[in-house]
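Deliverable D4.2, example record:
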Amino acid sequence: MDYKKTNAPLTTTVHDLVELAEQTGNIYETVAIISKRANQIAAEMKSDLEKKLQEFATLNDNLEEISENREQIEISRYYEKLPKPTLIATQEYEEGKLAFRNAARERDELV
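Output generated by the structure prediction step:
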């Protein structure tokens, strides 16, 4: 998932809960699906950020190096300006890009 190229809004938006719940028939299930995907996206974003900031890690920290590292600040600002993981996950859900299943419902249908 390339969260950098998503068309998710940068600010919080209002969604019609009835429309969101159409795929599952249950708003709570929908929220659970979106929240699990948002957690995955957040973990991926955190991992990417840590990899990029690891390049700037030094063994002995001194005050001058910390305050003068503009590149590190720019990387951090870039990630701060990205849409929040919840907004990206909601956008993916609305566009039908998320695959999900309800194991309990499938089990009940088999019986």
